[in-house]
Specification:
The complex is a heterodimer of chains A (146) and B (55).
Chain A (H helix, E strand, L loop, with lengths): L2 E5 L5 H14 L4 H24 L6 E9 L2 E8 L14 H4 L12 H8 L2 E6 L4 E8 L9
Antiparallel strand pairs in A: 1-2, 2-3, 3-5, 4-5
Helix pairs in contact in A: 1-2, 2-4
Chain B lengths: L2 H13 L6 E3 L3 H9 L7 E3 L4 H4 L1
Parallel strand pairs in B: 1-2
The chains are: A alpha+beta (146), B mainly alpha (55).
Chain lengths: 146, 55
């Protein structure tokens, strides 16, 4: 998987978004699916920069790459910040999501949106790097009509 | 609309409870996010910006 490397700062979010958008479009995703994939990667990348690097007092890169594996588009995001598995994050439940603005907690929606935007987010940490794999099932090509 | 945008809406409403939040002609994906996160019932979705909204 060929990867692009960006510094682990908020300035990296725009080129990462452009990379994801171009990759998702070329893989055949429709407009809405492209938007959701971009949002998912953006939310996780933002968390890595803000929590994994800045708040943890660490510095490093964000590396992004993509491949098609079986019938899935796989976008891989790698960092060297503080480890955090998004699948262990407590996502808002129905009660949280129906609460009025006045009693809402500020925060907690980013990972919810990320998990909602793709079919799966796989996470592993190797000790040297944290790897997020965003899995998106590709639409099947329509059979030619007779 | 990312979570950063949603946080701004919550923050604004909590700072100013009487505030009415209008979202003008949002894309379908924005409406989808607002619905999934439960924000849809708390904002006004309108098709165009009127003189009243401009204040």
């Amino acid at each position: 998987m060929e990867q692009q490397r960006f510094p682990g700062t908020l300035d990296a979010l725009e080129p990462i978004r452009k990379y994801v958008e171009a990759t998702a479009r070329s893989a055949g995703l429709d407009h809405k699916a492209v938007y959701k994939v971009c949002l998912a990667v953006d939310e996780i990348a933002t968390n890595i920069v803000v929590h994994g690097y800045e708040e943890a007092g660490l510095q490093g890169d964000l590396k992004i790459g993509a491949s098609v594996e079986d019938d899935n588009l796989v976008i891989q995001l790698e960092d060297q910040g503080k480890a955090y598995d998004p699948n262990l994050h407590l996502i808002p439940d129905a009660g949280d999501l129906s609460a009025p603005f006045e009693s809402r907690k500020i925060g907690g929606l980013g990972i919810f949106l990320a998990l909602d935007g793709v079919d799966d987010i796989q996470y592993k940490t190797t000790g040297k790097a944290n790897i997020h794999r965003f899995i998106i099932r590709l639409p099947h090509e329509r059979e030619p009509e007779e | 609309m990312a979570s950063a945008g949603l946080r701004i809406l919550i923050f604004a409403k909590q700072k100013q409870p009487d505030l009415k939040i209008y979202i003008v002609k949002p894309q379908e994906a924005i409406v989808d996010t607002l619905q999934k996160t439960g924000f849809y019932q708390s904002v006004y979705i309108v098709d165009r910006e009127t003189e009243e909204l401009k204040g």
